């Protein structure tokens, strides 16, 4: 058999084999085809060796008698380069998710400029999972995007004036079973002037009332039995009004509040002891229907 025929037959056989390797290398394996998972014959070095044999065979077969060696060398170099390129790993590098905290985002979900699902109320729960999409800014929410309700009374914490109501107790719109005594809301002696500590307490009350705009409240002042009935009645009215005025200064609409002074009419403890009188000097908050 002639030299050229032999070379071409060998080259052709190797071309077919190399083509198979290259096409196998280009097929995905599962979800990804990392180079470590490829068969040995798909490695660029193996393909380069095969390409070199092919190129050398073709170069040898097509060269004249005087330049067989140079033709084979040139063909081998070119074939090795081509073989290596054919079997090069073209698997794209995995792209890290831009919003890993959201997990897998369903198709069709609206996203922002960074590719993250929209979160219109900024509570950390994307709109497509948010069951309470209008949560006010800064309110702590659960996994469903709804405001926390620690005592499960149906009134979320940020509106609840009685956040520790026992389980199963029916509450009003303030989150309280009944009127609630505003603890530590005290006044200067024989005066309607709020103490600085009382103002700090009322700041929290006002914040929850502002967040609960559909509820009206009754602010009720009470005294102990010392002094005349008329004097105590007037003092309790002034103190209730002082609380209402302060709450209005913190953003609670005045038309949502009424101030009522009951004086000594409704004691909750004995007026015979200092401790009892202290308990009777109080301001209560109740729902105003």
Tell me about this structure.
This protein has six helices and four strands; from the N terminus they run αααβαβαβαβ. It is an alpha+beta fold. The chain has two domains: 3-29 and 37-86; 159-287, 60s Ribosomal Protein L30, Chain: A. Strand 2 (217-222), helix 5 (229-249) and strand 3 (257-261) form a beta-alpha-beta unit. 28% of the residues are buried. Helix content is 36%, strand content 7%. The model is unreliable at 29-35 (pLDDT under 50). It starts with a helix and ends with a strand. Strands 1-4-2-3 form a four-stranded mixed beta sheet.
Notable traits:
7% strand; four-stranded mixed beta sheet; 6 helices; 60s Ribosomal Protein L30, Chain: A; 2 domains; 289 residues; alpha+beta; 36% helix
Proportion in helices: 25-40%
Structural category is: alpha+beta
**Biggest β-sheet: strands ordered side by side in the sheet:** 1-4-2-3
State the distance separating the first and last CA atoms. 111 Å
Mean pLDDT across residues: 82
Instruction: Report the radius of gyration as a whole number of Å.
Output: 42 Å
Question: How many strand segments?
Answer: 4
Assembly form of the protein: single chain
Could you say what the CATH architecture of the largest domain is?
A: 2-Layer Sandwich
**Beta content:** 5-15%
């Amino acid at each position: 058999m002639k030299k050229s025929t032999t070379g071409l037959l060998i080259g052709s056989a190797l071309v077919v084999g190399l083509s198979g390797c290259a096409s196998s290398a280009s097929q995905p394996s599962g979800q990804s085809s990392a180079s470590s998972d490829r068969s040995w014959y798909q490695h660029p070095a193996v393909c380069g060796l095969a390409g070199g044999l092919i190129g050398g065979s073709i170069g040898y077969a097509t060269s004249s008698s005087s330049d067989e060696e140079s033709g084979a060398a040139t063909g081998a170099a070119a074939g090795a380069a081509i073989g290596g390129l054919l079997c090069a790993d073209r698997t794209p590098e995995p792209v890290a998710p831009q919003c890993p905290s959201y997990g897998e985002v369903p198709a069709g979900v609206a996203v922002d400029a960074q590719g993250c699902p929209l979160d219109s109320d900024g509570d950390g729960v994307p709109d497509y999972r948010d069951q309470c999409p209008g949560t006010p800014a800064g309110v702590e929410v659960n996994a469903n995007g709804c405001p926390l309700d620690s005592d499960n009374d149906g009134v979320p914490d940020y509106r609840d004036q009685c956040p520790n109501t026992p389980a199963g107790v029916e509450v009003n719109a303030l989150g309280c079973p009944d009127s609630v005594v505003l603890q530590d809301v005290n006044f200067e002696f024989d005066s309607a002037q709020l103490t600085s500590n009382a103002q700090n307490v009322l700041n929290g009350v006002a914040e929850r009332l502002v967040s609960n705009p559909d509820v009206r409240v009754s602010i009720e002042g009470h005294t102990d039995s010392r002094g005349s009935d008329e004097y105590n009645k007037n003092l309790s009215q002034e103190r209730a009004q002082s609380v209402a005025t302060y709450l209005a200064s913190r953003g609670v609409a005045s038309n949502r509040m009424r101030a009522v002074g009951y004086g000594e009419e409704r004691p909750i403890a004995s007026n015979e002891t200092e401790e009892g009188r202290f308990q009777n000097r109080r301001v209560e908050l109740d729902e105003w229907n």
